[in-house]
Each structure stands twice: as structure tokens, then as C-alpha cells.
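Predict structure. Input: Large ribosomal subunit protein uL24, 82 residues.
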Amino acid sequence: MFVKTGDKVKVIAGKDKGKEGTVLSVNAKTNRVVVKGINKIKKHVKPSQTNANGGVVEQEGSIHASNVKVIAKASSKKEEKK
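Output follows.
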């Protein structure tokens, strides 16, 4: 897959077209990525230890990897040591 966690990407298709963000996670099996601040969805959650009230939580949903374009690659620790 051409996208890695930490890469800065731009959305080229869909409702968030033109927006930029950082890749939070990559699912190579389904070819989908989660980008910070893109494709916000509302999820209903039950009360738990961390969230005593529960309720509706807004979080990022995944989008298909073909709908993003890499702007800047994430720097790896190996490259920084050179």
C-alpha cells in the first residue's frame, strides 16, 4: 500500500474533497485509511468506566485509499539517523 501511518494526505474524492490531514491508521486488508479530521461520523456509545454518561461521540471514519493523495511522507527513525 502506498499510504503509511503518519503520512500527510489530501482527499481527492468524496464529501471532504480538498481537505488535508494526517493518516492515523491503515487497514491493508480492506484498503482503507483513517485520516485525522476527515469523514467525521457520529457513534452511539454505552456508558463505561471511561465515559460514565455514554451518549453520541463524533469520530473519524475510514475512507478508501484510492481517494487520498500523499502530500508528504512520514519521516522514519532510520532516515533521521543518517
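The chain has one helix and seven strands.
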